[in-house]
Give the backbone structure.
Amino acid sequence: QTGYTALDYGFVNTASTKSEITYIDGEAGILRYRGYPIDQLADNASFLEVAWLLIYGELPTADELAGFDEKIRRHTLLHEDLKNFFSALPSSAHPMSVLSSATAALSTYYEDGSDPANPEHVETNIIRLLAKLPVIAAYAHKKSIGQAFLYPDNSLSYVENFLRLNFGNMAEPYEINPVMVRALERLLILHEDHEQNASTSTVRLVASTGADQFASISAGIHALSGPLHGGANEAVLKMLGDIRDSGEGVHRFVERVKNKEAGVKLMGFGHRVYKNYDPRAKIVKQSADEVLAALGVNDPLLDIAKELEEIALADEYFQSRNLYPNVDFYTGVIYKAMGFPERVFTVLFAIGRLPGWLAQWREQNLDGQGRIGRPQQLFLGQPERQYPAK
Ligand code: SDX
Protein backbone atom coordinates (compact mmCIF):
# COMPACT_ATOMS: atom_id res chain seq x y z
CA GLN A 1 0.00 0.00 0.00
CA THR A 2 1.72 3.18 -1.10
CA GLY A 3 -0.43 5.51 1.03
CA TYR A 4 -1.33 7.57 -2.00
CA THR A 5 -4.94 8.15 -3.00
CA ALA A 6 -6.38 8.83 -6.41
CA LEU A 7 -6.71 12.49 -5.43
CA ASP A 8 -2.96 12.71 -4.85
CA TYR A 9 -2.57 11.90 -8.52
CA GLY A 10 -5.23 14.44 -9.50
CA PHE A 11 -7.31 11.54 -10.85
CA VAL A 12 -9.95 12.72 -13.32
CA ASN A 13 -12.68 10.69 -14.95
CA THR A 14 -11.57 8.88 -18.09
CA ALA A 15 -12.91 10.71 -21.13
CA SER A 16 -16.13 8.87 -22.10
CA THR A 17 -16.79 7.57 -25.58
CA LYS A 18 -19.19 9.88 -27.41
CA SER A 19 -21.90 8.10 -29.38
CA GLU A 20 -25.37 8.75 -30.87
CA ILE A 21 -26.28 5.11 -31.42
CA THR A 22 -27.69 3.51 -28.25
CA TYR A 23 -29.07 4.94 -25.02
CA ILE A 24 -29.33 2.95 -21.78
CA ASP A 25 -30.77 4.12 -18.46
CA GLY A 26 -29.58 1.49 -15.99
CA GLU A 27 -31.69 2.71 -13.10
CA ALA A 28 -34.93 2.86 -15.08
CA GLY A 29 -34.17 -0.19 -17.24
CA ILE A 30 -34.44 1.72 -20.52
CA LEU A 31 -32.78 0.70 -23.83
CA ARG A 32 -33.24 2.66 -27.10
CA TYR A 33 -31.57 2.21 -30.50
CA ARG A 34 -31.26 5.64 -32.17
CA GLY A 35 -34.16 6.77 -29.93
CA TYR A 36 -36.54 3.87 -30.65
CA PRO A 37 -37.49 1.77 -27.55
CA ILE A 38 -36.19 -1.79 -27.82
CA ASP A 39 -39.59 -3.44 -27.34
CA GLN A 40 -41.10 -1.54 -30.29
CA LEU A 41 -38.26 -2.62 -32.55
CA ALA A 42 -38.32 -6.24 -31.32
CA ASP A 43 -42.09 -6.45 -31.92
CA ASN A 44 -42.28 -4.72 -35.30
CA ALA A 45 -38.96 -4.50 -37.17
CA SER A 46 -36.76 -6.95 -39.05
CA PHE A 47 -33.16 -7.67 -38.10
CA LEU A 48 -31.75 -5.93 -41.20
CA GLU A 49 -34.08 -2.95 -40.74
CA VAL A 50 -32.66 -2.46 -37.23
CA ALA A 51 -29.13 -3.05 -38.54
CA TRP A 52 -29.62 -0.19 -41.06
CA LEU A 53 -31.05 2.03 -38.29
CA LEU A 54 -28.04 1.43 -36.04
CA ILE A 55 -25.48 1.90 -38.81
CA TYR A 56 -27.02 4.85 -40.69
CA GLY A 57 -29.08 6.54 -37.97
CA GLU A 58 -32.59 6.41 -39.48
CA LEU A 59 -35.07 3.64 -40.28
CA PRO A 60 -34.58 2.64 -43.95
CA THR A 61 -37.14 3.45 -46.60
CA ALA A 62 -38.65 0.42 -48.32
CA ASP A 63 -36.24 0.91 -51.25
CA GLU A 64 -33.21 1.33 -48.97
CA LEU A 65 -34.10 -1.86 -47.08
CA ALA A 66 -34.72 -3.80 -50.29
CA GLY A 67 -31.38 -2.65 -51.70
CA PHE A 68 -29.55 -3.48 -48.45
CA ASP A 69 -31.16 -6.93 -48.31
CA GLU A 70 -30.36 -7.61 -51.98
CA LYS A 71 -26.70 -6.58 -51.62
CA ILE A 72 -26.30 -8.83 -48.58
CA ARG A 73 -27.89 -11.79 -50.40
CA ARG A 74 -25.38 -11.26 -53.21
CA HIS A 75 -22.41 -11.49 -50.83
CA THR A 76 -23.25 -14.64 -48.82
CA LEU A 77 -20.81 -16.98 -50.63
CA LEU A 78 -17.41 -17.52 -49.04
CA HIS A 79 -14.30 -17.92 -51.19
CA GLU A 80 -14.00 -21.68 -51.76
CA ASP A 81 -10.47 -21.70 -50.32
CA LEU A 82 -11.81 -20.29 -47.06
CA LYS A 83 -13.89 -23.43 -46.58
CA ASN A 84 -10.62 -25.38 -46.31
CA PHE A 85 -9.73 -23.17 -43.34
CA PHE A 86 -12.30 -24.99 -41.21
CA SER A 87 -10.73 -28.40 -41.89
CA ALA A 88 -7.49 -27.19 -40.29
CA LEU A 89 -9.25 -26.82 -36.93
CA PRO A 90 -10.13 -29.70 -34.57
CA SER A 91 -13.86 -30.60 -34.47
CA SER A 92 -13.60 -30.04 -30.71
CA ALA A 93 -12.77 -26.34 -31.32
CA HIS A 94 -15.21 -24.02 -29.53
CA PRO A 95 -17.46 -22.39 -32.15
CA MET A 96 -16.51 -18.92 -30.82
CA SER A 97 -12.83 -19.66 -31.50
CA VAL A 98 -13.79 -20.85 -34.99
CA LEU A 99 -15.85 -17.71 -35.61
CA SER A 100 -13.19 -15.25 -34.44
CA SER A 101 -10.34 -16.93 -36.33
CA ALA A 102 -12.36 -17.45 -39.51
CA THR A 103 -13.34 -13.76 -39.39
CA ALA A 104 -9.68 -12.79 -39.23
CA ALA A 105 -8.96 -15.25 -42.07
CA LEU A 106 -11.82 -13.72 -44.11
CA SER A 107 -9.98 -10.41 -44.05
CA THR A 108 -7.07 -11.90 -46.03
CA TYR A 109 -9.28 -12.07 -49.13
CA TYR A 110 -10.03 -8.35 -49.03
CA GLU A 111 -6.79 -6.71 -47.92
CA ASP A 112 -6.76 -4.43 -50.94
CA GLY A 113 -10.33 -3.40 -50.26
CA SER A 114 -10.25 -2.64 -46.57
CA ASP A 115 -8.87 0.85 -46.18
CA PRO A 116 -10.71 2.36 -43.18
CA ALA A 117 -10.26 5.81 -44.75
CA ASN A 118 -12.02 4.74 -47.96
CA PRO A 119 -15.82 5.15 -47.54
CA GLU A 120 -16.50 2.72 -50.42
CA HIS A 121 -14.38 0.02 -48.75
CA VAL A 122 -16.12 0.64 -45.42
CA GLU A 123 -19.61 0.27 -46.92
CA THR A 124 -18.66 -2.83 -48.94
CA ASN A 125 -17.17 -4.50 -45.88
CA ILE A 126 -20.31 -3.79 -43.87
CA ILE A 127 -22.19 -5.79 -46.50
CA ARG A 128 -19.51 -8.53 -46.66
CA LEU A 129 -19.45 -9.04 -42.88
CA LEU A 130 -23.23 -8.99 -42.47
CA ALA A 131 -23.54 -11.47 -45.35
CA LYS A 132 -20.70 -13.84 -44.53
CA LEU A 133 -20.54 -14.02 -40.74
CA PRO A 134 -23.83 -15.95 -40.41
CA VAL A 135 -22.45 -18.44 -42.96
CA ILE A 136 -19.20 -18.79 -40.98
CA ALA A 137 -21.21 -19.10 -37.76
CA ALA A 138 -23.31 -21.90 -39.24
CA TYR A 139 -20.15 -23.64 -40.49
CA ALA A 140 -18.71 -23.42 -36.96
CA HIS A 141 -21.87 -25.16 -35.74
CA LYS A 142 -21.82 -27.79 -38.51
CA LYS A 143 -18.12 -28.46 -37.87
CA SER A 144 -18.79 -29.03 -34.16
CA ILE A 145 -21.37 -31.72 -35.00
CA GLY A 146 -19.48 -33.25 -37.94
CA GLN A 147 -22.05 -32.35 -40.59
CA ALA A 148 -21.42 -31.10 -44.14
CA PHE A 149 -21.61 -27.39 -44.86
CA LEU A 150 -24.52 -26.17 -47.00
CA TYR A 151 -24.34 -23.33 -49.50
CA PRO A 152 -26.48 -20.27 -48.70
CA ASP A 153 -29.84 -20.07 -50.46
CA ASN A 154 -30.28 -16.46 -51.59
CA SER A 155 -34.01 -16.94 -52.14
CA LEU A 156 -34.45 -17.00 -48.35
CA SER A 157 -34.55 -14.11 -45.89
CA TYR A 158 -31.55 -13.37 -43.67
CA VAL A 159 -32.82 -15.34 -40.68
CA GLU A 160 -34.39 -18.12 -42.80
CA ASN A 161 -31.04 -18.60 -44.54
CA PHE A 162 -29.22 -18.70 -41.22
CA LEU A 163 -31.58 -21.32 -39.79
CA ARG A 164 -31.31 -23.46 -42.93
CA LEU A 165 -27.49 -23.28 -42.89
CA ASN A 166 -27.58 -24.47 -39.26
CA PHE A 167 -30.30 -27.12 -39.41
CA GLY A 168 -30.63 -28.10 -43.06
CA ASN A 169 -28.61 -31.00 -44.45
CA MET A 170 -27.61 -32.47 -47.80
CA ALA A 171 -30.04 -35.37 -47.57
CA GLU A 172 -33.38 -33.59 -47.52
CA PRO A 173 -35.07 -30.24 -48.16
CA TYR A 174 -35.20 -27.95 -45.12
CA GLU A 175 -38.65 -26.86 -44.00
CA ILE A 176 -38.75 -23.26 -42.75
CA ASN A 177 -40.52 -22.97 -39.37
CA PRO A 178 -42.05 -19.47 -39.17
CA VAL A 179 -42.22 -19.65 -35.36
CA MET A 180 -38.48 -20.22 -35.17
CA VAL A 181 -37.79 -17.51 -37.76
CA ARG A 182 -39.79 -14.87 -35.88
CA ALA A 183 -38.45 -15.93 -32.47
CA LEU A 184 -34.82 -15.87 -33.61
CA GLU A 185 -35.33 -12.54 -35.40
CA ARG A 186 -36.61 -10.99 -32.13
CA LEU A 187 -33.74 -12.44 -30.12
CA LEU A 188 -31.15 -11.20 -32.61
CA ILE A 189 -32.70 -7.70 -32.59
CA LEU A 190 -32.43 -7.63 -28.78
CA HIS A 191 -28.68 -8.24 -29.12
CA GLU A 192 -27.88 -5.80 -31.94
CA ASP A 193 -26.24 -3.12 -29.81
CA HIS A 194 -25.72 -2.14 -26.19
CA GLU A 195 -23.55 1.02 -26.17
CA GLN A 196 -20.04 0.65 -24.73
CA ASN A 197 -20.09 -2.94 -23.39
CA ALA A 198 -16.77 -4.80 -23.21
CA SER A 199 -16.83 -6.26 -26.74
CA THR A 200 -18.03 -3.05 -28.39
CA SER A 201 -15.39 -1.04 -26.52
CA THR A 202 -12.86 -3.58 -27.84
CA VAL A 203 -14.12 -3.06 -31.40
CA ARG A 204 -13.81 0.72 -31.02
CA LEU A 205 -10.36 0.57 -29.42
CA VAL A 206 -9.03 -1.65 -32.21
CA ALA A 207 -10.75 0.60 -34.78
CA SER A 208 -9.06 3.65 -33.23
CA THR A 209 -5.64 2.27 -34.20
CA GLY A 210 -6.63 2.35 -37.90
CA ALA A 211 -7.20 -1.41 -38.08
CA ASP A 212 -9.85 -2.57 -40.56
CA GLN A 213 -13.39 -3.81 -39.81
CA PHE A 214 -12.42 -7.50 -39.98
CA ALA A 215 -9.67 -7.12 -37.35
CA SER A 216 -11.95 -5.06 -35.10
CA ILE A 217 -14.88 -7.49 -35.36
CA SER A 218 -12.60 -10.49 -34.76
CA ALA A 219 -11.30 -8.79 -31.60
CA GLY A 220 -14.88 -8.07 -30.51
CA ILE A 221 -15.79 -11.75 -30.92
CA HIS A 222 -12.90 -12.74 -28.67
CA ALA A 223 -14.00 -10.23 -26.01
CA LEU A 224 -17.60 -11.43 -26.21
CA SER A 225 -16.58 -15.06 -25.59
CA GLY A 226 -15.81 -14.52 -21.90
CA PRO A 227 -18.33 -16.05 -19.42
CA LEU A 228 -18.84 -12.68 -17.72
CA HIS A 229 -19.99 -11.24 -21.06
CA GLY A 230 -21.51 -13.05 -24.05
CA GLY A 231 -20.33 -16.45 -22.80
CA ALA A 232 -22.85 -16.12 -19.98
CA ASN A 233 -25.72 -17.49 -22.10
CA GLU A 234 -23.85 -20.80 -22.42
CA ALA A 235 -22.86 -20.68 -18.73
CA VAL A 236 -26.52 -20.20 -17.67
CA LEU A 237 -27.58 -23.46 -19.36
CA LYS A 238 -24.69 -25.30 -17.70
CA MET A 239 -25.71 -23.82 -14.34
CA LEU A 240 -29.38 -24.85 -14.80
CA GLY A 241 -28.32 -28.34 -15.88
CA ASP A 242 -26.00 -28.71 -12.87
CA ILE A 243 -28.84 -27.72 -10.53
CA ARG A 244 -31.13 -30.28 -12.19
CA ASP A 245 -28.52 -33.06 -12.14
CA SER A 246 -27.21 -32.38 -8.62
CA GLY A 247 -30.64 -32.91 -7.11
CA GLU A 248 -29.64 -30.31 -4.50
CA GLY A 249 -32.52 -28.00 -5.42
CA VAL A 250 -32.63 -24.33 -6.24
CA HIS A 251 -32.59 -23.06 -2.63
CA ARG A 252 -29.36 -24.90 -1.86
CA PHE A 253 -27.75 -23.49 -5.01
CA VAL A 254 -28.78 -19.94 -4.06
CA GLU A 255 -27.18 -20.45 -0.64
CA ARG A 256 -23.93 -21.53 -2.36
CA VAL A 257 -24.06 -18.36 -4.46
CA LYS A 258 -24.58 -16.20 -1.38
CA ASN A 259 -21.71 -17.99 0.39
CA LYS A 260 -19.60 -17.24 -2.71
CA GLU A 261 -18.51 -20.88 -2.78
CA ALA A 262 -15.57 -21.28 -5.23
CA GLY A 263 -16.71 -18.25 -7.17
CA VAL A 264 -20.19 -19.70 -7.73
CA LYS A 265 -22.27 -16.99 -9.41
CA LEU A 266 -25.87 -16.80 -10.51
CA MET A 267 -25.02 -16.64 -14.21
CA GLY A 268 -27.39 -14.51 -16.27
CA PHE A 269 -27.88 -12.20 -13.27
CA GLY A 270 -26.32 -8.81 -12.62
CA HIS A 271 -25.12 -6.11 -14.97
CA ARG A 272 -22.55 -3.31 -15.08
CA VAL A 273 -25.23 -0.81 -16.05
CA TYR A 274 -28.71 -2.20 -15.32
CA LYS A 275 -29.47 -1.93 -11.63
CA ASN A 276 -33.04 -2.81 -12.54
CA TYR A 277 -34.57 -5.51 -14.72
CA ASP A 278 -32.75 -5.67 -18.11
CA PRO A 279 -35.55 -4.70 -20.54
CA ARG A 280 -34.29 -7.35 -22.94
CA ALA A 281 -34.59 -10.08 -20.31
CA LYS A 282 -38.25 -9.15 -19.83
CA ILE A 283 -38.94 -9.60 -23.54
CA VAL A 284 -36.99 -12.88 -23.73
CA LYS A 285 -38.78 -14.30 -20.68
CA GLN A 286 -42.16 -13.52 -22.26
CA SER A 287 -41.25 -15.19 -25.54
CA ALA A 288 -39.68 -18.24 -23.85
CA ASP A 289 -43.10 -19.63 -22.88
CA GLU A 290 -44.57 -18.83 -26.33
CA VAL A 291 -41.70 -20.31 -28.31
CA LEU A 292 -41.37 -23.52 -26.28
CA ALA A 293 -45.14 -24.07 -26.45
CA ALA A 294 -45.18 -23.38 -30.22
CA LEU A 295 -42.28 -25.78 -30.72
CA GLY A 296 -43.95 -28.34 -28.47
CA VAL A 297 -40.94 -28.35 -26.13
CA ASN A 298 -41.37 -28.82 -22.39
CA ASP A 299 -38.00 -28.09 -20.75
CA PRO A 300 -37.67 -28.40 -16.95
CA LEU A 301 -34.71 -26.01 -17.16
CA LEU A 302 -37.16 -23.18 -17.88
CA ASP A 303 -39.01 -23.99 -14.67
CA ILE A 304 -35.73 -24.06 -12.75
CA ALA A 305 -34.80 -20.66 -14.25
CA LYS A 306 -38.13 -19.17 -13.21
CA GLU A 307 -37.81 -20.58 -9.68
CA LEU A 308 -34.25 -19.21 -9.44
CA GLU A 309 -35.45 -15.78 -10.52
CA GLU A 310 -38.34 -15.80 -8.05
CA ILE A 311 -36.10 -16.77 -5.12
CA ALA A 312 -33.31 -14.34 -6.05
CA LEU A 313 -35.58 -11.34 -6.56
CA ALA A 314 -37.08 -11.90 -3.09
CA ASP A 315 -33.70 -12.32 -1.40
CA GLU A 316 -31.95 -9.42 0.34
CA TYR A 317 -28.52 -10.57 -0.91
CA PHE A 318 -29.53 -9.97 -4.53
CA GLN A 319 -31.77 -6.99 -3.80
CA SER A 320 -29.05 -5.15 -1.91
CA ARG A 321 -26.69 -5.66 -4.83
CA ASN A 322 -29.26 -4.69 -7.47
CA LEU A 323 -28.95 -8.06 -9.15
CA TYR A 324 -31.64 -8.80 -11.75
CA PRO A 325 -31.84 -11.16 -14.73
CA ASN A 326 -29.90 -9.86 -17.74
CA VAL A 327 -30.30 -10.65 -21.42
CA ASP A 328 -28.49 -13.99 -21.02
CA PHE A 329 -30.70 -15.51 -18.35
CA TYR A 330 -33.51 -16.93 -20.53
CA THR A 331 -32.08 -16.86 -24.07
CA GLY A 332 -30.31 -20.22 -23.78
CA VAL A 333 -33.53 -22.09 -22.98
CA ILE A 334 -35.00 -20.83 -26.25
CA TYR A 335 -31.87 -21.53 -28.29
CA LYS A 336 -31.83 -25.08 -26.85
CA ALA A 337 -35.50 -25.56 -27.78
CA MET A 338 -34.63 -24.48 -31.33
CA GLY A 339 -31.97 -27.19 -31.46
CA PHE A 340 -28.76 -25.17 -31.11
CA PRO A 341 -25.99 -26.87 -29.07
CA GLU A 342 -25.01 -24.91 -25.92
CA ARG A 343 -21.54 -24.17 -27.34
CA VAL A 344 -23.17 -22.28 -30.24
CA PHE A 345 -25.22 -19.92 -28.02
CA THR A 346 -22.54 -17.23 -27.80
CA VAL A 347 -22.03 -17.41 -31.56
CA LEU A 348 -25.72 -16.43 -31.84
CA PHE A 349 -25.00 -13.49 -29.54
CA ALA A 350 -22.15 -12.44 -31.88
CA ILE A 351 -24.37 -12.64 -34.99
CA GLY A 352 -26.92 -10.51 -33.19
CA ARG A 353 -24.30 -7.98 -32.03
CA LEU A 354 -22.59 -7.65 -35.41
CA PRO A 355 -24.66 -4.68 -36.67
CA GLY A 356 -23.94 -2.76 -33.47
CA TRP A 357 -20.23 -3.45 -33.73
CA LEU A 358 -20.28 -2.28 -37.37
CA ALA A 359 -22.26 0.84 -36.45
CA GLN A 360 -19.90 1.69 -33.59
CA TRP A 361 -16.82 0.97 -35.77
CA ARG A 362 -18.21 3.33 -38.45
CA GLU A 363 -19.00 6.05 -35.88
CA GLN A 364 -15.49 5.69 -34.44
CA ASN A 365 -14.06 6.41 -37.90
CA LEU A 366 -16.50 9.08 -39.08
CA ASP A 367 -14.82 12.31 -40.15
CA GLY A 368 -11.51 11.04 -38.81
CA GLN A 369 -12.73 11.43 -35.23
CA GLY A 370 -10.68 8.34 -34.58
CA ARG A 371 -7.97 9.58 -32.29
CA ILE A 372 -6.16 6.45 -31.06
CA GLY A 373 -7.81 5.20 -27.91
CA ARG A 374 -5.81 4.99 -24.71
CA PRO A 375 -7.81 4.20 -21.54
CA GLN A 376 -6.43 6.19 -18.63
CA GLN A 377 -4.54 4.47 -15.81
CA LEU A 378 -4.68 5.31 -12.15
CA PHE A 379 -1.12 4.59 -10.96
CA LEU A 380 -1.05 3.10 -7.46
CA GLY A 381 2.44 1.61 -7.55
CA GLN A 382 5.73 2.58 -5.92
CA PRO A 383 6.98 6.19 -5.98
CA GLU A 384 10.49 6.69 -7.38
CA ARG A 385 13.16 4.68 -5.58
CA GLN A 386 16.89 4.06 -6.17
CA TYR A 387 18.59 0.85 -7.26
CA PRO A 388 20.68 -0.35 -4.28
CA ALA A 389 24.40 0.42 -4.68
CA LYS A 390 26.44 -2.80 -4.89
C1 SDX B 1 -23.67 -9.12 -20.90
O1 SDX B 1 -22.13 -4.46 -20.54
C2 SDX B 1 -23.08 -4.93 -21.27
O2 SDX B 1 -23.89 -4.19 -21.78
C3 SDX B 1 -23.06 -6.44 -21.44
C4 SDX B 1 -24.27 -7.03 -22.14
C5 SDX B 1 -24.36 -6.60 -23.59
O3 SDX B 1 -25.47 -6.58 -24.13
O4 SDX B 1 -23.27 -6.37 -24.20
O5 SDX B 1 -25.45 -6.64 -21.46
C6 SDX B 1 -24.20 -8.55 -22.17
O6 SDX B 1 -22.50 -9.35 -20.78
C7 SDX B 1 -24.62 -9.35 -19.75
C8 SDX B 1 -23.88 -9.89 -18.47
C9 SDX B 1 -23.66 -11.39 -18.65
N1 SDX B 1 -22.84 -11.91 -17.54
C10 SDX B 1 -23.34 -12.68 -16.56
O7 SDX B 1 -24.53 -12.96 -16.45
C11 SDX B 1 -22.30 -13.23 -15.59
C12 SDX B 1 -22.81 -13.09 -14.15
N2 SDX B 1 -22.84 -11.68 -13.79
C13 SDX B 1 -21.70 -11.14 -13.09
O8 SDX B 1 -20.48 -11.71 -13.30
C14 SDX B 1 -21.74 -9.63 -12.96
O9 SDX B 1 -23.01 -9.29 -12.57
C15 SDX B 1 -21.36 -8.77 -14.15
C16 SDX B 1 -20.00 -9.11 -14.66
C17 SDX B 1 -22.36 -8.91 -15.25
C18 SDX B 1 -21.37 -7.32 -13.68
O10 SDX B 1 -20.38 -7.21 -12.76
P1 SDX B 1 -20.23 -5.87 -11.87
O11 SDX B 1 -21.22 -4.83 -12.24
O12 SDX B 1 -18.78 -5.53 -11.89
O13 SDX B 1 -20.68 -6.33 -10.47
P2 SDX B 1 -19.69 -6.79 -9.37
O14 SDX B 1 -18.89 -7.94 -9.89
O15 SDX B 1 -18.97 -5.59 -8.86
O16 SDX B 1 -20.67 -7.36 -8.25
C19 SDX B 1 -21.21 -6.50 -7.26
C20 SDX B 1 -21.61 -7.47 -6.17
C21 SDX B 1 -20.47 -8.40 -5.73
O17 SDX B 1 -20.78 -8.81 -4.41
P3 SDX B 1 -19.87 -8.18 -3.18
O18 SDX B 1 -18.42 -8.36 -3.53
O19 SDX B 1 -20.29 -6.73 -3.13
O20 SDX B 1 -20.28 -8.96 -1.97
O21 SDX B 1 -22.64 -8.36 -6.68
C22 SDX B 1 -22.13 -9.69 -6.68
C23 SDX B 1 -20.63 -9.61 -6.60
O22 SDX B 1 -20.09 -10.79 -5.99
N3 SDX B 1 -22.58 -10.27 -7.95
C24 SDX B 1 -23.07 -11.49 -8.08
C25 SDX B 1 -23.40 -11.62 -9.45
N4 SDX B 1 -23.10 -10.50 -10.09
C26 SDX B 1 -22.58 -9.65 -9.17
N5 SDX B 1 -23.26 -12.47 -7.18
C27 SDX B 1 -23.80 -13.61 -7.66
N6 SDX B 1 -24.15 -13.81 -8.95
C28 SDX B 1 -23.96 -12.85 -9.86
N7 SDX B 1 -24.30 -13.04 -11.13
